[in-house]
Amino acid sequence: SGQTATGATAVAHPNIALIKYWGKRDERLILPCTDSLSMTLDVFPTTTRVRLDPDAEQDEVTLNGDRATGEAGRRITTFLELVRELSGLEHRAVVDTRNTVPTGAGLASSASGFAALAVAAAAAYGIDLDATALSRLARRGSGSASRSVFGGFAVWHAGPDTGTAAEADLGSYAEPVPTADIDPALVIAVVNAGPKAVSSREAMRRTVDTSPLYRPWADSSKQDLADMRTALGRGDLEAVGEIAERNALGMHATMLAARPAVRYLSPATVAVLDRVLQLRQDSVPAYATMDAGPNVKVLCRRADAPRVADAVRDAVPDGTVLVAGPGRGAHLLGGDG
Ligand code: PMV
User: Where does the Mvd1 C-terminal domain lie (predicted)?
Assistant: First the structure.
């Protein structure tokens, strides 16, 4: 390909968790309290180019054409420090990243962002990592990014709870999940594309530290994951949806019970949830999941997606509704220099 040891471009897509990642047991290494499982989408790609600049004294990061400042820029520089450590090279980098998804709106822009950055930066710095190692690396940028390294359905292992930090770090990566073909679609209702009031990082911390519902949810999530694997393995979309919906509602319950409460769900969210219930009463299998924001993703069969999308549009006339399917994992683009 056109990749050289000094420049590389990668593309990654967001993923939506059906079994949620919510809560870290190690903030620095981004080790989660629980395993999680997601579907990588075929919409909202992030494209990131990383070029080494031997003359630069600082990394230069551009997000959608604007110089990244503050927290967003710091997170990327911290991540590049890690890549420099792994590569033994000290060169600063010029990073140009383009997101087609609203940033920080609970639409997983950090997942596609850090998956693309991990793949592009590893190539630009000349470190040869397999998919497992790329997933571990992406995890250090944003936990959910570990799953966007893979296409389709992926499970992210929390990693061993005993032993050294290095052992835990080695054991916490994503991998593809064996599934029967359920021909799934996610109908995405963007009810508010603005940035969230509380970052997922802060919300997780507050939930783990203060919510009396956190432990029970984390424990029940183990059974949800086991049930989800079985349901995916036998291609049972109804069961997949039911498990995903209960796991997501449980996650939101943990944060509603945090002190002070974190509430991402809005009236428009609830309007979509009501419509999803109505669809089920009308014998259309449709199941909702929500992340760190008011937007709703509705899992259904691809054949039912147009009907589900119409119902959701009707519930939130001011929203934007689109249909996503399973997408590819993060990958390099050829022809770059
Ligand atoms: O990786 P982060 O810090 O963006 O956290 C994402 C957490 C959720 O999207 C709410 C759940 C998940 O598993 O993706």
Answer: 187-318
